[in-house]
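call fold(seq) -> C-alpha cells
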Amino acid sequence: MGLLVDSNIRIGILGGGFAGLYALFYLRKIFHQDIDITLFDKNNYFLYTPVLHEMATGTVNARHVVIPIREVVNPGDVHIRCEEVTLVEIEKKVVESPSGAFKFDHLVLAQGSEPNFYCFPNLQQNSITFKTIEDAIRLRNSLTGVLEKAALERDRERRRSLLTIAVAGGGCTGVELVAEIAQFIKIILRKDYPEIKRSEVRVILIEAMDRILPSFPRYLSNVAMDRLRQMGVEVLLNSPIQWVNQDYIGVKDGKISNGILVWAAGVKARPLPLSPEQKRDLNNRITVNEHLEIPGYRGVYLIGDGALFINNGIPLPPTASVAVQQAKFVAQNILLRSQKKEPPPFRFRYRGDMASLGFMFGVAEVYGRQFKGLPAWIIWKVFKLGMLPRVKNRFQIVADWLITLLFKRDTSKLI
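ret:
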C-alpha cells in the first residue's frame, strides 16, 4: 500500500523513455495517492529499444516494440501532455510548452539522448542512425532495397559496393545489430535471393577501440568477436572512421564502399532549454550531485542519458539499467523529502551486462558470473521480456520469436 503525505505534491516529468516512465511507475507505487503528476513527451508512446535491432530485420513486428503511454499509465491518475517543452525555469520549477506554463514542486528531467556525430562533416547525410522507430524502419527498407538492386545489377564492382553493409560502433547496440544483420542476410539470401551469393555481401563492424563490448569482461568480448567472425562479420578494431561521403567510408587503413552505413557509435543528451543555462560536457550532459539534482537547485532532478554522474571515477553509461535505478532513487527521494527527511546519496549497483549475438547465442555477465552461448541467450531473452512494461507486448514478442523460427522472415518494405 502506498504511503500518504500531508498534501498534494505537484511533480513534473519531462521525457517518456526508461528514466521518465519508470520514475512515474515508482512514484505511483510508493505514493499511491496525494500526488499530482504531469508527464511531458513529444511522442504518445514508449519505444522499447532493447529489441529494436530485431524489429529492423523482421524478427519482431514494428507495432510490438512501441507501447502507447496511455495503456501503461492511467490517464485519470496522470496528466499526459504530448508536446515539446519550450523552456524549463529550474529556479522556479516552471515548465513552458505551447499549451501554457506549469509550476511544480519537483521536476524530473529525463529528456533522453540522440545520436552524436562528433562534428563529422557529411556523416549525418550519409549514414543511418539507430535510435528511433523511424531509424529501424529506414534500415529495414534500406536492407531490402539494396538486395533488390543487387539482384538486378550486372556490374560486379557496383554489385559489391551495394552489398557492403557497415555498422559503426562496437558497443552493445552495434554488436547486437551487426549480428542480427549477418543472420538476416544468411537466411534471406538462401530463400529469397538465390541470384546473390553470401560471399558477395560484406558485413563489417567498425570499432575505434582495441576490442568490442568494452564494458564487458575481456573474455566475453573475445567470445563475442569470435562469434561475429564465425557469422561472416568483418571486425575492424582500432579503426576510427575518419571521413564519410556518399560512396566511401574512410578508416585508418583505407576506405570501404558505403552501401549502407549504420551509425551506432555514440549518443549525446537531447537538447533541453534551461533557464538559467547550465554547463554541459562534450556529450551535452549536465553534472548532477549525489542526490541526482542539478547542483544549487533542490528538487530539480536530472536522470538518464542527460545526467553526468561520476561513479568510482567513471561517468555512468547511458543505458536502460542506469536509468531505471536512477528513476527508483528519485522517486524515493521525493517521498523522503515530503516526509521532511534527508535522502541518502545515490549508489549505482552494477548487476551485469548482456548481449544477443544472433540465434541461440549470446554473452552475459550477471552478478559476477559469466555466461556464453545458449545460456546467455536465454538469460537475455528472459531479462528483456521482464523489462517490458506491458504484458500484452511480452506475449506479442514471444509470438514473433516463435513465428520467426517456424516461417521465413518478412522482407517487404514498411511505409
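The chain is about 30% helix and 25% strand.
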